[in-house]
Design a protein that fits this description.
Length: about 160
C-alpha cells in the first residue's frame, strides 16, 4: 500500500484537527423560510488565487414538513462570484450599499428570518451541475425580541 497520502496528512495533522467541517447539504429545489443563525467570513487560497468568503449558517423553518424543519444548511458566497454575492447583499441591506459594508451587512443579519430559493443549475460551458442557495426576501429582522441595529445596514447617502 502506498503511504504517500498518510505521510503528507501526518505533516499537516494540526491543520487537519483545526479544519472546520463545511455543511454542503441543501434542501430540495424550491422556496423556503429560514433563520440566519451565524455569519462567518474568511480568506482562502486556491490554485494561487486568494479570495474572501462569507458563510451564512441557516436553519429551515418548515413547520408543515417535519423532515426538513430545523435542518441546517449554508448560504455561501465568495469574492470570485460577485454576481451571486451582490444580490443577496442588496436584499439584506434594503438596497444600494458601499462594498466596504458587505461583511457588516451579512453579520447584522444574524437572527433574521429570510426567504430563500434553492436551485440546481448547469454551467453552459462545462455542463457541470451545481446547487445554489440565494436570499429572496427579508421576512423579519428580529429574533426572539432582539432588535437589530438598523444603522449597520443603511444604504449610503446618495
Amino acid at each position: 500500500m502506498n503511504t504517500d497520502f498518510q505521510d503528507i496528512l501526518n505533516q499537516v495533522a494540526t491543520e487537519y484537527e483545526e479544519t472546520q467541517v463545511i455543511n454542503r447539504w441543501l434542501p430540495p429545489d424550491g422556496d423556503y423560510t429560514a433563520i440566519i443563525e451565524k455569519c462567518e467570513t474568511g480568506k482562502s487560497t486556491s490554485q494561487k488565487s486568494t479570495f474572501g468568503w462569507i458563510r451564512l449558517d441557516c436553519r429551515l423553518l418548515c413547520e408543515g414538513n417535519p423532515e426538513l424543519d430545523g435542518k441546517e444548511f449554508e448560504i455561501f458566497h465568495t469574492t470570485k462570484l460577485l454576481f451571486k454575492l451582490k444580490p443577496d447583499a442588496n436584499i439584506l441591506s434594503g438596497g444600494k450599499h458601499d462594498p466596504s459594508q458587505v461583511a457588516a451587512i451579512f453579520k447584522a443579519a444574524e437572527g433574521w428570518i429570510i426567504n430563500t430559493t434553492i436551485s440546481t443549475n448547469e454551467n453552459q460551458k462545462t455542463g457541470q451541475t451545481f446547487r445554489n442557495a440565494s436570499i429572496t426576501e427579508v421576512v423579519d429582522k428580529a429574533d426572539a425580541g432582539k432588535e437589530v441595529d438598523e444603522a449597520k445596514v443603511e444604504a449610503p447617502a446618495s
